[in-house]
From TrEMBL:
Pfam families: MFS_1
Lineage: Bacteria, Pseudomonadati, Pseudomonadota, Alphaproteobacteria, Acetobacterales
TM region(s), chain numbering: 12-37, 57-77, 89-108, 114-136, 145-166, 172-194, 206-227, 233-250, 271-292, 304-325, 332-352, 364-382, 403-423
Name of this chain's protein: MFS transporter
InterPro entries per the UniProt record, alphabetical: MFS (IPR011701), MFS_dom (IPR020846), MFS_trans_sf (IPR036259)
Species assigned in the record: Gluconacetobacter liquefaciens (Acetobacter liquefaciens)
One GO cellular component term noted in the UniProt record for this chain: membrane
CDD domains attached to this UniProt entry: MFS_MMR_MDR_like (cd17321)
A GO molecular-function annotation: transmembrane transporter activity
Length: 459
């Protein structure tokens, strides 16, 4: 790209926009693809490293916790270093961590390597939508966010297929080694095509960043300890420390013009509703995504390869509907589109709950596809609602909060799956699907409240 610094709302046009979005897409694809592959390979990994199904979820949780704990500090850092530069740092970190994942032999080693991957992923995810907001003019931001959603869904779609292909011919470490060529290509694209953006001149608040990491880390580990009923006294202490750190962080951030913890954005009603809807929707999705491979392998007796292929209709449904949603997101209110999408997703989960014990592959696949299409309808309009509700000049914070909503929901969803596996003795996977449907319908109800607010404003 040229040395020109883009300003928010200005946007790029033609080939420069296409190349910049290509760089963003490759970066996002890298982080999402690996997450999707690890989900599908989880039963195989658990068996190989001799971990129980509930404890093996730390292969997922370690990534999500590290990503969640560092996301807001990195979004703040990105405003100071430059969004493109932080994206490049994240790509390098992610690739190095992938090598460590492949070399791991125990659950602890793999969880630590996945945590490093999570930090790299947080660098990417904390700035990707902020970059979209600079690449696209304000009137077309819905298209950019929808395209970003297509990339995310494509990564999730490719994940099961790639996982199945890799596991059919090689051991599970190769699902991490395939990140190396994609990471190299993403790094080159990010170096050449990502635009420069304005940088904040304020200093980075290191104490607040440390408080944020302590708060999120202690809260997530404490909740996980309670979920696994391992050391309840330690779990309570972790929750108390996390709560105290969060309280101190909130006090420290009060009154700042560009806070690391953007509680001021949550004071904007439209932003708060969109954030809540996104979080609960991703709780629903993780109830489904994490528990479904165990359902397919242990209840419906599918192989690891078949399991990967049968999960694929979920992201394929998202990708199939996304072009239409991209055209509608800038014109149809999120209160309508997102509510419809979440109701469709909830219905898909209900249909999965009703699967007969001898269900065929097609019978499973079309139900998952319906749920995926609904999720594709919900996602882009809701993310757009969050970005446009944020004041100008707060792209970094808003982008970080979009990812926080997703990761917090996914992390809590994974935690609730572990809790369900730990406490429910009879058919816990079915209970997970029922809870997925309940969360999706609950998110739809919250989303529909935007229509009531819209009528009141109109009046």
């Amino acid at each position: 790209m040229t040395g020109k610094v883009l300003h928010e709302g200005e946007g790029l046009y033609g080939l420069p926009r296409a190349l910049a979005m290509f760089a963003v897409a490759l970066s996002v694809l890298l982080s999402v693809l690996d997450y999707a592959i690890a989900n599908v390979a989880l039963p195989t990994i658990a068996q190989d490293i001799h971990a129980s199904p509930s404890s093996s979820i730390w292969v997922i949780n370690a990534y999500q916790m590290a990503c969640l704990a560092t996301l807001l500090p990195l979004a703040s850092l990105g405003s100071r270093l430059g969004f493109a530069r932080l994206c490049r740092i994240g790509l390098a970190t992610f690739v190095v961590a992938s090598v460590f994942c492949a070399m791991s032999h125990t659950l602890l080693e793999l969880a630590l390597a996945r945590a490093l991957q999570g930090i790299g992923g947080a660098c990417i995810m904390s700035v990707n939508i902020a970059l979209v907001r600079f690449i696209y003019p304000h009137a077309e931001i819905g298209k950019g966010i929808a395209l970003n959603g297509v990339v995310v869904a494509t990564g999730v779609a490719l994940g099961p297929t790639i996982a199945s292909a890799v596991l059919s011919v090689a051991d599970w470490p190769w699902i991490f080694l395939i990140n190396l060529p994609l990471g190299g290509a993403a790094m080159v694209a990010a170096l050449v095509y990502l635009p420069a953006t304005p940088r904040s001149l304020s200093s980075f608040d290191l104490p607040s960043a440390a408080l944020n990491v302590v708060a999120i880390g202690c809260l997530v580990v404490g909740l996980d300890s309670l979920a696994h009923r391992s050391g309840p006294v330690v779990a309570v202490w972790l929750l108390l420390i996390g709560g105290a750190a969060f309280f101190q962080l909130a006090r420290r951030q009060t009154g700042r013009s560009d806070p690391m913890l953007p509680l001021d954005l949550l004071a904007v009603p439209d932003f708060l509703i969109a954030f809540s809807v996104g979080s609960l929707a991703f709780v629903a999705s993780n109830f489904f995504i994490i528990s479904m491979p165990f359902t397919l392998e242990t209840v419906l007796h599918r192989s690891a390869v078949a399991t990967g292929l049968l999960i694929t209709p979920w992201p394929v449904g998202i990708v199939a509907i996304s072009p239409l949603v991209g055209r509608l997101a800038d014109r149809v209110p999120a209160g309508i589109l997102s509510s419809i999408g979440l109701c469709v997703t909830g219905t898909g989960f209900v249909l999965l709950c009703l699967l007969p014990a001898d269900a065929g592959n097609l019978d499973i696949a079309w139900r998952i596809a319906i749920a995926g299409m609904g999720f594709g309808i919900f996602q882009a309009p809701n993310n757009r609602a969050m970005m446009v509700a944020a004041p100008r000049g707060r792209s970094g914070s808003a982008s970080g909060m979009v990812s926080v909503a997703r990761l917090w929901g996914q992390t809590m969803g994974a935690m609730f799956v572990a809790l369900t596996f730990g406490f429910v003795r009879h058919d816990p996977t079915l209970r997970c699907l029922e809870l997925a449907a309940a969360c999706a319908y609950g998110a739809a109800l919250i989303s529909s409240s935007r229509l009531v607010r819209g009528r009141h404003r109109g009046g």
